[in-house]
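Sequence only, no structure available. Ideas?
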Amino acid sequence: MRYPDWPHRLNEFVVAATKREFRWAEHDCCTFAADAVLAITGVDYMADFRGRYHDEESAEALITAECRGGSLFKHLYKLFGRPVHGAMAQRGDIAWYEGCCGVMVSNHAVFFGQNGYLLVPRRRKRPDDPYVKFAFRVR
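Reply:
I predicted one. C-alpha cells follow.
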C-alpha cells in the first residue's frame, strides 16, 4: 500500500535519481523502477536481485533463472497483476516501453538507461509516436 504522502516521496525520489549515473545492479532501469516503488510503498520488490548481476548479460541470465525461464514482463505481471494500457497509467505505476521498466510521473513515464533518462508519453499524438504500451498498478 502506498504511503499517505507518496506523491511527495515520488517527486523527491525522481529528483534525487536524476543526479545519479547508470550502474548495473545499483542504478539501472529495473532498480530505478523498483526504487521508485520502494520510495512510495516501503516494499522492495528487487531485494532478491540486488547485487547479483553486473552487466546486461548477467542481468538477463538472472531474470531467466529467477523467473523460471520467463521474462521481466512476466515477472512484473506475477508481482503486480495484469497490466493496464499505458493510457490508463497513473502516477507511481510501473511503466513498460520497449523492454524497459520506468515510472509514471504525470502524463509521461521516466525511463533510465545507459544513455540517460527518457520521457515517454502515456499516449501518442501521431501513429509513429512512441508511447507507454503498458503499466503495472502499484497500490
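The CA atoms of residues 19 and 116 lie 10 Å apart.
Hope that gets you unstuck.
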